[in-house]
């Protein structure tokens, strides 16, 4: 069920959000940014260029790092995040042209680095379903005229791979059918073993009765053979782990510290785990999806509060920063709906970016994005695909990349099916030989029992 948002849901504290709106307007004007850029966070500090140190403020938006001097000659430096090639924990940046930028925050250096590195590592993503569906409804021929991405050829390769998989699968299924028949014969042989066991017990009982009769009428005593205990069989219970999705986020603690973390969303719970490599003891937190009472897109961009059913302020909320808020909101909303059959409240505060949620298409599309585990991996030479100017080109590239990835997966599956088919053919031959030996052994055993019965009757 898709939830569309026609306009922002205004919260009562618009006065608090007004400062964010004002800062956004000033920054867009000073640095020539588009209306889609919002200030996520800002830090006061020193910008170093050669032997020159300049005091000022560094502003972080979804796609830019912007520095503005605070005194003397006004200096404005705008760095597009997608142009950066490297970044270290001293907050030294290096772009594709070899230019180096250094920034030294006055306070909260670790927090500043964590947030900058997160934005550098994972590009911001937002999906408009209306535009997305318009793009996907265009014919393949028109797409190829608009872009250089040969989607039609990729689709033909995928179709061919699927046909090959069908042939491989048919062969595999025929061998499976043969093995099922062999298994049925094996089960019949098992039942025969049971009957033979009963015959053996009957022979033992008859022999015991004969011994009893002989003891009554003869002086020679014969000891009966000891009884054998039936072995006890135990069955193993196989439990399949629940499906989950993992997202790289920034976890905002109650002291406003920002730490890198992994947010794992299961079918019925959410787990947050710190991912720092410098600490021995890492923070973790877990809460049930049914304990959520609302999602709040904060006035500060990329920030979300998850309200929980708990009296304590610290335990009653979880605060995160993410470039994939739409995906997280969509996943939490859908899973909550499946568990409770009720809609989870989603609030967009003033200055927040409104988006669609409640549609599985959003999940499928965002599985191609950087912060989410299971996504298509982009090589370093393909980074341009994430930075194309139009969303349509980016979507076309993702379609092509995803189609090619499916083709590779199917070909890999065909190879594995071929190997499994060869192994299954060998297993079938061995099983047939084993069944033949068992039938021969049972025949010999039955002849043996017949001889014993004849001996008793003498």
UniProtKB/TrEMBL annotation:
<feature type="domain" description="GRAM">
    <location>
        <begin position="25"/>
        <end position="91"/>
    </location>
</feature>
<protein>
    <recommendedName>
        <fullName>GRAM domain-containing protein</fullName>
    </recommendedName>
</protein>
<dbReference type="Pfam" id="PF02893">
    <property type="entry name" value="GRAM"/>
</dbReference>
<dbReference type="InterPro" id="IPR011993">
    <property type="entry name" value="PH-like_dom_sf"/>
</dbReference>
<dbReference type="InterPro" id="IPR004182">
    <property type="entry name" value="GRAM"/>
</dbReference>
